[in-house]
Amino acid sequence: MRLVKYLAHAGVASRRAAETMIAAGRVSVDGEPVTDPARDVGQQSRVGVDGRLLDGPEQRVTYAVHKPVGVVSTARDTHGRPTVVGLVGAQGVRLYPVGRLDADSSGLILLSNDGELANRLTHPSFQVSKTYRATLGGRPIGDDALARLRGGVELEDGVTAPAKARRLGEREIELTIHEGRNRQVRRMCAAVGHPVRSLIRVRFGPLRLDGLGVGEHRRLSERETGLLRAL
């Protein structure tokens, strides 16, 4: 197994962050510093980070969480705000959010110690879809605004990819995107004249929020994680 993959499976960090740690000389194998992320390591290898030996790859686990408004999508927060990782009492397992939901939004987010899976679910090349329901301000949403959302919206960081959009009510829509830009849904809706009043993510790939109360979590089954890996 390559060293960078070993670190990701051990729950140390995502692959990208692990590559940075290796390049900085923070990782050793059998007592010797290693800067090559492709270095092969085996079950008998002694891998250390910052002088501390790792126990080996953790069992890979992934949780679905219903993030409440006001909770931040990080493992820890320097301002003392509640974090989504704090909602899951996974003792001894280092979990990291897969993707982000801003503090003002709620809904489905994943937590995992599987860096490889997290990368596949968030990297733009895999185009994993995410579905949101938004309550909008302004006048009742019209067909012209829906058409603009479906065709791509001009934002300050470029035109968005076409989205799926359908009207649920006079001021409520369901929007499915496969990009991951910062506050993208809010910016798209504002660009077509409808500021978001509330936003909830109801689907992440094949997973739905159904059955999870606000603040609740559940561990994904092997079948569900298999579906995620197959995306």
Q: Any guess at the CATH architecture of the largest domain?
A: 2-Layer Sandwich
* Rg over CA atoms: 20 Å
Examine the coordinates and then state which fold CATH places here, giving the name of the CATH topology of the largest domain: Alpha-Beta Plaits
- Low-confidence regions: none
Number of extended strands: 15
SSE pattern: HHEEEEEEEHEHEEEEHEEEH
CATH class of the largest domain: Alpha Beta
For the biggest sheet, the summary is: 9 strands, mixed
Please give the oligomerization state of what you see.
single chain
Q: Whole-Å distance between the termini?
A: 23 Å
Instruction: Please report the number of helical segments.
Output: 6
Helix and strand content put the structural class at alpha+beta
Helix content: 10-25%
Could you characterize what this model shows?
The chain is α+β, with helices and mostly antiparallel strands. It has three domains: 51 residues, Roll (Structural Genomics Hypothetical 15.5 Kd Protein In mrcA-pckA Intergenic Region, Chain A); 86 residues, Alpha-Beta Plaits (2-Layer Sandwich), CATH 3.30.70.580; 76 residues, Alpha-L RNA-binding motif (Alpha-Beta Plaits, 2-Layer Sandwich). Helix content is 21%, strand content 27%. It has six helices and 15 strands. The strands form three sheets. Strands 5, 6, 7, 8, 11, 12, 13, 14 and 15 form a nine-stranded mixed beta sheet that branches. Helix 1 crosses helix 2. The radius of gyration is 20 Å and the shape is elongated. The two termini are 23 Å apart.
